[in-house]
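Can you make up a protein sequence with its backbone structure tokens?

===
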Amino acid sequence: MKRYKDIPSWWFYLLLIVTVLVSLAMCIFMKDQIQMPWWGLIFASALAFVFTLPVSIITATTNQTPGLNIITEYVMGIIYPGRPIANAVSFLNDFKLGHYMKIPPRSMFLVQVQ
């Protein structure tokens, strides 16, 4: 691997900046479809920045990656109620897994709502 050139850090920073700018533009100009305000994107980015190091340390030591989706879904649900699109996608993913595992839909619903 020493024979190959390393990736410059500025490539990652540029990708981060472009991604955040495109996401902000979508939140501002497509607010009815996206259902996330611009400040929600900034808040989500800040949460990701804060939790990246602890999650990386846990993953590196235990080979288990803790999911932050539960925490972020509850926090955003409390801060910005009435916009369930982001939570609904995760909700449907869990239902799909429950379907494959032959878990009754009503049991899955009760567990998800709690």
